[in-house]
């Protein structure tokens, strides 16, 4: 095969690559039989791992039953001193029966300065990944648009452990819709400068609290 002398650099490079591989044998098929999790199929151990990894990322973890959830949410907000709570559409009303704070809704959509003035935001999630201590949001019911969980300083997230906890990222991906706007959260937002001084709350909430509901 003759490599053309003219054309862009990109075209010349691609032509050389085609010439080099034109007689190469077909590559063997890629095997996909590797394990998709390093954890045993034990829901209790999986939940303990999720709680430990969330805490390792400096998230505050609470565990309760469904009946206890409203009181737990009310206690968390009271202890934090929250007076306003941003509530996305789709958050179950019974989650809020134990709270006495002012509820803020996102319709019409709130401007960034109004979101910044809210004390706390309460959401559900799409999934939680135990091996990485990650919460996944996809703007589904009870989660709201992405800005709602990136601007307020305190994010309180509820995870239904019976059907929203998976062991690993390979198990999570097939359950998520790639066309939806996903946010993967591993602990509160944080960054470090050149001297490794950690600063939290730069690109998202300074405090992440997760309630694991059994």
Automatic annotation (TrEMBL):
This is Lactate utilization protein C. InterPro entries: FTHF_cligase-like_sf (IPR024185), LUD_dom (IPR003741), NagB/RpiA_transferase-like (IPR037171). It comes from Streptacidiphilus cavernicola. Pfam families: LUD_dom. Residues 51-213 form the LUD domain.
């Amino acid at each position: 095969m003759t490599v053309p002398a003219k054309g862009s650099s990109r075209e010349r490079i691609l032509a050389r690559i085609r010439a080099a591989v034109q007689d190469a044998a077909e590559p063997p098929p890629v095997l996909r039989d590797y394990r998709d999790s390093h954890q045993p199929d034990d829901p209790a151990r999986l939940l303990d791992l999720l709680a430990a990894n969330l805490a390792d990322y400096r998230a505050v973890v609470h565990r309760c039953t469904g009946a206890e959830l409203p009181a737990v949410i009310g206690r968390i907000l009271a202890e934090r001193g929250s007076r306003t709570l941003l509530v996305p559409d789709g958050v179950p009303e019974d989650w809020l029966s134990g709270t006495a704070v002012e509820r803020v809704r996102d319709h019409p959509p709130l401007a960034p300065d109004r979101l910044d003035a809210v004390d706390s935001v309460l959401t559900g999630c799409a999934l939680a990944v135990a091996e990485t201590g990650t919460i996944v949001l996809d703007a589904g019911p009870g989660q709201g648009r992405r800005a709602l969980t990136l601007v307020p300083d305190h994010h309180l997230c509820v995870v239904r452990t019976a059907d929203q906890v998976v062991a690993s990222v390979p198990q999570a991906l097939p359950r998520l819709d790639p066309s939806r706007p996903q946010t993967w959260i591993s602990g509160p937002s944080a960054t470090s400068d050149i001297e490794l001084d950690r600063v939290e709350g730069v690109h998202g909430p300074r405090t992440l609290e997760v309630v694991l509901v059994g």
